[in-house]
Design a protein that fits this description.
Length: about 170
């Protein structure tokens, strides 16, 4: 059974002023967007809407965490996520605009679904490299058994260079 994550904001009956909304999303919400990095996450969103006559100004902030596999040791780790963004919705005919934070809705629309923007803001906050942070002495906090294996393999690779590569290096240097 799919959870209902109602991210639609009905603005047609709202008077000009400020409104606040809060959301809590987990991996089930983000699974709709097929992003493996957000499969095990929990994110809290705060949305502030300033309703004006011909403009909706959204200030979105989020905080949470996701569980990712370390790129170095493959052990699961918790990665904090946070961010802020603004989204402006104007009414009328769509115009060419280089600003990705401005959206045009046709006159007569009565609601907007923020799901896609919420997903994108969180997805951009996920770090590209997933590695356990080093401790206060600069040592990796990865799985010690895996680090021992990695270090042993690196040493073997450096000492056991295949002599056939030497012949290729000579050709390159000529």
């Amino acid at each position: 059974m799919e959870k209902n994550f109602d991210t639609k904001i009905q603005f047609s009956g709202l008077k000009p002023g400020c409104y606040e909304y809060e959301y809590r999303f987990d991996g089930a919400f983000f699974s709709r967007f097929e992003n493996d990095d957000l499969r095990e996450c929990s994110v809290d969103f705060k949305v502030k809407l300033e309703r004006k006559e011909r403009l909706l100004a959204f200030d979105l902030s989020f905080e949470g965490e996701t569980v990712l596999e370390c790129d170095r040791c493959l052990e699961k780790m918790r990665v904090p996520l946070q961010g802020e963004a603004s989204l402006f919705v104007k009414f009328g005919e769509a115009k060419e605009c280089d600003n990705e934070d401005v959206v045009y809705l046709p006159d007569g629309e009565s609601e907007i679904d923020l799901a896609q923007w919420m997903y994108e803001y969180v997805a951009v906050a996920v770090p590209m490299v997933h590695i356990h942070p080093d401790d206060e002495h600069g040592n990796p906090t990865c799985d010690p058994a895996m680090m021992k294996y990695i270090n042993t393999t690196e040493q073997e690779d450096n000492h056991g260079i295949d002599p056939r590569w030497d012949a290729l290096k000579k050709l390159r240097d000529e």
